[in-house]
């Protein structure tokens, strides 16, 4: 602790007893709470490297943390009180903007929304977008390979990153901040660190890919009586609008009912429907063209019986209100109480069969359990969450049923060719599930990589592998 104080200054080594560390020690869902030996707040990459060297010399584990919005318990310390929490929040500068190369280099603790705003101020678009964007950080986004609402057009965090700066488990600094779109010089170290959830190295900065800003963005809601029809609407929209389609989200009736219950001030233009789809077009020709595209698409969908109602946003404020509705679902669920979350991906074509089968099995085995289904249908990612029956305390339901519910859901995910983690990662929540569900060969390779890069197991121990 003395050495850390000498490195960072007393004000940036926060000790339990002297400071309230709850905001660092408890996760967003309030599911995991640990105790940190100390919370460290370095200001730059050199200080991060110094911390890692000290941690290594004293054999003390480190847990990197950005905005602490992760949903799998990956960024909070365990209960032992022996782990250092390494907060990246003070590394928050935009280091470089290169409009001609369509890139910007930002530090790991830069909040996603600030990175979006920096790109916007340069007349460009950084398209990564998710409901936690006001708090999550670029380092956390890359460490979890975050997805969000624009993946079907622009890809996930991995596809938006060209280069990284990383402090290795030895405390060395790897400067891989290249803004190159082509670079075939051996193994792809960048892709190894992306999605590694703080277990292989500490990301300190990244060079990110930017895109031209679309001239207009427009949103619509459409009501479908089944998920099968929602998939047909996706096919139709893709064939008519091509790359202009930048968002395609689905919400089942219960997910919007929870929003109505906990946020009654939010308008729901279509009223209760089995499935509501949120579509977004980003148009390079302007607002008039986007509106015309939407109107003819939705008219055709109505005529074919694919949807039975629709509303196109009349203004930017209405577009934002529609997104707000969608993004309020996790918050409404959180208000309703702890639930059993499944962030899964499947081939889009198999999603309706999966949901039908899984809904039926859960209704039979766990009568009264409530299914809150929503997510990024456009890229095959569903948040298939199971809420306790009305009247059952959520914590009891979670404790008594989680393992059995997970077995039903994940068996069906695998049977339908899917993945048990689409975008939130593994953390502690799915670590044991991963070991059971991933091929033994893949697990062995992952353990060998961990062993090679962090032989002492000091970076985020007990997470992922
Ligand atoms: P943290 O929670 O602080 O950390 C997450 C993991 O990354 C931990 O394992 C941590 O150790 C590691 N880590 C953090 N920073 C670094 C670093 N610099 N170097 C190495 N490792 C690091 N996720 C999606 O993908 N899509 C969504 O649509 C989405 N919606 C969300 C909505 C809400 C309301 C909330 C609360 C969360 C949502 N998330 C979503 C999950 C979460 O926001 C993302 O996982 C996000 O990328 C985490 O960023 P963070 O900075 O908060 O990371």
Strand order of the largest sheet: 15-12-14-13-17-18-16
| Structural domains: how many | 4
Helical fraction equals: 25-40%
Assembly state: single chain
CATH class of the largest domain equals: Alpha Beta
Percent of residues in β-strands: 15-25%
Give me the number of helical elements.
16
Span from first to last CA?
Answer: 29 Å
Which ligands occur here? flavin-adenine dinucleotide
Mean pLDDT: 96
Brief sketch in words of this structure:
Keywords: FAD, Flavoprotein. By secondary structure, this protein is of the alpha+beta class.
What does this structure look like?
With 465 residues, the chain is of the alpha+beta class. It is 36% helix and 21% strand. It has a seven-stranded antiparallel beta sheet with strand order 15-12-14-13-17-18-16, with helices on both faces. A five-stranded antiparallel beta sheet has the order 5-6-10-8-9, with helices on both faces. Strands 1-2-4-3 form a four-stranded mixed beta sheet. The chain is globular, with a radius of gyration of 23 Å. Bound molecules: flavin-adenine dinucleotide. InterPro entries: FAD-bd_oxidored_4_C (IPR004113), FAD-bd_PCMH (IPR016166), FAD-bd_PCMH-like_sf (IPR036318), FAD-bd_PCMH_sub1 (IPR016167), FAD-bd_PCMH_sub2 (IPR016169), FAD-linked_Oxase-like_C (IPR016164), FAD-oxidored/transferase_4 (IPR051264), Oxid_FAD_bind_N (IPR006094). This is Hydroxyacid dehydrogenase. Its cofactor is FAD.
